[in-house]
Design brief:
Blueprint lengths: L18 E6 L7 E7 L2 E7 L4 E7 L3 E9 L18 E2 L13 E13 L2 E14 L5 H20 L17 E6 L8 H15 L4 E5 L5 H8 L5 E8 L1 H12 L4 H7 L2 E5 L5 H10 L9 H8 L3 E10 L4 E4 L2 E5 H8 L9 H12 L4 E9 L22 E5 L28 E3 L33 E13 L3 E3 L2 E2 L11 E7 L4 H10 L8 H6 L2 E13 L7 E3 L2 E3 L4 E13 L2
Parallel strand pairs: 8-17, 9-10, 9-11, 10-18, 11-12
Antiparallel strand pairs: 1-2, 2-3, 3-4, 5-6, 5-7, 7-8, 13-14, 13-26, 15-19, 15-24, 16-19, 16-23, 19-22, 20-21, 22-23, 23-26, 24-25
Helix pairs in contact: 2-7, 3-4, 8-9
Length: 580
């Protein structure tokens, strides 16, 4: 067994071995693995008579690890029709552990990018089980397993591993605050969190406090008034509406500047649009459509945060902060008018797009903007295509015992595993809690505007487009929804508002081509740009002034706001979001 190792900072390189042990696969004769842990990840080196094969499981792909004991085997009746329980490992001191087995099991959970010919890349859940049983006492085996666990968890967090610990460490981490809208989209917010997200949080040993929203603006009030310092981050489960509430709740706090610096936001898609969740996955190069919740779940456990641009939006009666878009005309009409089809999920937008295309409208007004200078050109990150190494869903290894043992290895049956309730500190607040809080005179704080107020004249340095418009839509991230790639090159913090202007002289054929291209980002083409009928302008600020003799819809992040003048100003990298 390895003795305690003290490593100096200058000795630590990405490839330096932090921990190493030899493991055996008893189901295969003379099958030996050397397992090494470095900053790069977990290296599994298989030694046979003729060759050595090495597989690296990247630190980036590992989300957590847990130490368990084997479960006491229960006797079964020969006439029993139900299958045996598949859970063969339990927590220490659970009362169900098999005290005759002195082994300690380290379960390492990873989500590894796999690619096969003709199949899109996706992440596959993999469990690496290391069974420590070199000593005759469980306490000694557990001590070694815990050493590995602690170092792996430090690497996951991105911390410097200066010392390999010799003892156990039970430092408590702050919980996550989870705000879930059970009625978002098709009404599956609660099920999405419990079935898709909780298992991954448990694998990563991350505790949370879950609060279900009970009424409109519940999340906004909660974030505005709570003691937010007790949580490490805010996770919202639902659609764009609950994200809008949480962000604006932060800016309604007197301590907003400290909160946005120290409390990142995580997004779990559960609505009809899910534009921000899709944009985060797009920028990170994570597969999304094959498993829409996995990139978001990974972002909660990886301790990675990125700055995100926010737009300060001013109307005649309010100031709000926007993360997604400001719209007037065609897309806003679809967003608001299709609410009656909410039970259909994302399909509601497709159906109502056809209706609005047939009954096409246009609106009179003026669009003012400040062009973005020296606009950078970005490309979305591409998935790295390394060697196509197929890694099995379970890798089960164990150390050699000090003396010959007759006990068999207990499988965790990862494909069928029921998830343990290891987040014992997690809490759940049901919808039966108290009703709406009384308004306490909320006030919008946040950074001060550098633009003239909405009632002042626009400076002569601003550019203006005057006429009739089918649509004006200002967007900041790449996606407006899961299947609308509005700005393929957009980043979370590129400091640009992308102002899409579609003039009234655009034909239905051109508009249809525009709509069909939204799914893959080909909606803006040189022909329409040159003709000036459909424009995509990079700007820093804008003002829309509709003709008030007409009526229509204006939206901010999909939320209906009053019809009238509206002004947006970008603040680069103002908040932090969790990214995979």
């Amino acid at each position: 067994m390895m003795t305690e190792i003290q490593l100096k900072k200058d000795e630590l390189s990405p490839g330096r071995i932090l921990l190493e042990e030899t493991f055996h696969v008893l189901t295969k004769k003379n099958s030996v693995f050397r397992v090494r842990l470095t900053r790069n990840g977990l290296s599994l080196i298989k030694e046979t008579d003729n060759q050595i094969k090495e597989t690296l499981i990247s630190t980036r792909d590992i989300i957590g690890c847990r130490c368990l004991r084997s479960k006491k085997e229960t006797s079964t009746c020969s006439c029993q029709s139900l299958p045996r329980a598949t859970m063969n490992a339990v927590e220490e001191n659970s009362g169900e552990q098999d005290d005759s087995d002195v082994s300690a099991y380290l379960y390492i959970y990873a989500y590894i990018m796999q690619s096969n010919k003709g199949v899109p890349m996706k992440r596959e859940r993999t469990i690496i089980t290391l069974r420590f049983r070199s000593f005759d006492k469980y306490e000694d085996n557990n001590k070694e397993a815990q050493r590995w666990r602690m170092v792996i968890k430090e690497l996951i967090k991105g911390d410097q591993v200066d010392n390999i610990p010799s003892g156990l460490n039970h430092n408590e981490q702050k919980k996550l605050l989870v705000l879930c809208n059970p009625k978002s989209g098709p009404g599956r917010g609660r099920a999405i969190f419990q079935q898709k997200i909780v298992p991954i949080l448990q694998e990563a040993e991350i505790a949370y406090d879950l609060h279900m929203t009970k009424y409109a603006n519940y999340a906004r009030e909660f974030v505005r008034t709570c003691n937010i310092s007790q949580w490490s981050g805010i996770v919202v489960v639902g659609g764009d509406g609950i994200i809008f509430e949480a962000i604006n709740g932060m800016f309604e706090r007197p301590d907003w500047s400290e909160v946005i610096k120290n409390v990142p936001i995580g997004v779990i898609p559960g609505g009809s649009g899910n534009g921000l969740a899709r944009s985060i996955a797009h920028v990170a190069g994570e597969p999304y459509l094959c498993n829409t919740t996995l990139p978001s779940a990974l972002s909660l456990v990886r301790n990675n945060f990125e700055p995100m641009d926010i737009v300060r939006v001013e109307t005649k009666s309010q100031i709000v902060f926007s993360f997604l878009s400001v719209g007037w005309g065609f897309l806003s009409d679809i967003d608001i008018e299709s609410e009656r089809l909410r039970m259909l999920g994302g399909q509601r937008f497709t159906i109502w797009s056809l209706a609005r295309l047939i009954g096409l409208r246009n609106y009179r007004g003026k669009v003012w903007y400040i062009p973005a200078n020296d606009t950078p050109v970005h490309k979305a990150k591409e998935n790295k295509k390394g060697d196509n190494i197929e890694i099995p869903a379970e890798i089960n290894l164990e150390t050699q015992s000090a003396r010959q043992r007759l006990d068999s290895w207990y499988s965790a049956a990862s494909k069928r595993s029921a998830y343990y309730s290891i987040t014992a500190n997690s809490s759940y607040q049901s919808t039966a809690d108290s009703g709406p809080q009384e308004e306490s005179g909320s006030r919008m704080y946040g950074p001060a505007s550098k633009l003239p107020c909405l009632t002042a004249e626009v400076p002569s340095t601003w550019k203006c487009i005057d006429g009739r418009f089918i649509m004006v839509h200002a967007s900041y991230p790449s996606h407006l929804s899961e299947d609308v790639l509005f700005v393929p090159n957009a980043k979370l913090d590129d400091g640009i508002i992308w102002l899409n202007v579609i003039k009234a002289d655009t034909s239905r054929a051109q508009l249809l081509q525009f709509l069909l291209g939204l799914s893959n980002g080909t909606h803006i083409n040189p022909e329409t740009q040159d003709s000036g009928s459909i424009l995509m302008l990079p700007v820093r600020a804008f003002r829309i002034e509709p003709d008030m003799s007409e009526s229509g819809y204006i939206t901010v992040d999909g939320e209906h706001v009053e019809y009238g003048p509206i002004q947006g100003e970008l603040f680069p990298g103002l908040v932090r979001v969790m990214v995979p």
